[in-house]
Amino acid sequence: MTPRLDTLPYRHVLTLPTEPAAVRLARETAEQALAEWGVAAHHPVVGPALLILSELVTNSVRHAAAPQTTVIYAASPECLVFAVHDRHPHRPRLYGPSGTGAGGLATVVELTHGPGGTAVVRGDADGLGKSVWITLPL
Fold it and tell me: Which pTM was predicted?
């Protein structure tokens, strides 16, 4: 389960134009935030987290017909949480019929579950957007 954001001591929000350069900027921002929060670059969850983030932002850039993508970063000493939000109404399935990842999100699911994390898609209240939330243990 994703912890409530207001319970996590470290938080950062980044809103980007939905264009290819957003992937690099989202990743660089994550690296900077993690360093500021005391999460070492060599921590075993950092590499997978950056890859997951890159994949999710890439999906927003490729598939969302929205002008902006928002990335929420948060952490505590026990976990790292991030979400990628866009205003496209399609809510992708993270899991196929047998519990495996679906489509391009298979890598996201595999990298999230490997260290014991969780992945969930949450729709906006108005049904016109969604966020993909990832929680990874530290």
Answer: 0.91
